[in-house]
Specification:
Rossmann fold; about 220 residues; binds adenosine monophosphate; about 10% strand; about 55% helix
């Protein structure tokens, strides 16, 4: 968890690869549905464009669908979900039914002025979700293409200044209480998210080590 621009997508992708777990990012799933024009995408468009949250019912439905596909048995890293208290309660019920409890909730702490600077002008890969901050250009031969999959990079429509402000407000009002929900249960671990990707990654690995998950086997339940 963490505010927009905290580095959730980058770090969750890395963690999932390192632990052979599924990376389930609700924002990526919604953007993909929008790009391919499915009914889910059509329903989600106005929320994504305005930086507000897609209704809980819709998001819970799509997470449950993927959980049923066997993701819960394989181990998973949730990214950008849950974002509201009802979503967290829905997830608790879903995981109880599946007998797959959460190992922990990692919270990336990044001050608002830092995330505003990071989000303005960042480019993302529409295919694999890799993120390229404004100050870091991909070293690929052909500029403006993703290093990993060569797709043309784009600027996310919700990375405009007014939408960034709205997304931060939504985080403060709707998602911060979810952190409290997990703090009360002793599951939340806050990690400093300011610094280079590798530095933050080491802090996350240390936090995961303290959860008793020191390797891929530890992450697989
Ligand atoms: P993200 O890629 O996580 O920054 O999400 C981008 C946008 O997708 C958000 O601003 C919301 O409109 C929508 N979204 C992603 N995850 C959720 C969620 N768990 N609940 C509601 N809306 C979401």
């Amino acid at each position: 968890m963490g505010p927009p621009g905290a580095g959730k997508g980058t770090q969750a992708g890395r963690l999932a690869r390192a632990h052979f777990a599924a990376h389930m990012a609700t924002g990526d799933i919604l953007r993909e549905a929008l790009a391919t024009g499915t009914p889910l995408g059509q329903e989600a468009r106005r929320y994504l464009d305005s930086g507000t949250l897609v209704p809980d019912r819709v998001v819970l439905g799509l997470v449950e669908e993927r959980m049923r596909d066997g993701v819960a048995q394989q181990g998973f890293v949730l990214d950008g979900f849950p974002r509201t208290v009802p979503q967290a309660e829905g997830l608790d019920a879903m995981l109880d039914r599946l007998g797959a409890p959460l190992d922990g909730v990692l919270v990336l702490a990044v001050p608002e002025e830092v995330v505003v600077g990071r989000l303005g002008g960042r480019r993302t890969c529409p295919d694999c979700g890799s993120v390229y901050p404004a100050q870091r250009r991909p070293p690929a031969l052909e500029d403006d293409r993703c290093d990993r999959c060569q797709a043309a990079l784009t600027v996310r429509s919700d990375d405009r200044p007014e939408t960034i402000r709205r997304r931060l407000e939504v985080y403060r009002e709707e998602t911060r209480p979810v952190v409290a929900h997990y703090e009360l249960r002793g599951l939340a671990h806050t990690v400093d998210g300011v610094g280079e990707v590798d530095e933050v990654a080491s802090r996350l690995d240390a936090a995961i080590g303290r959860l008793g998950m020191t390797g891929p086997e530890g992450a697989r339940r």
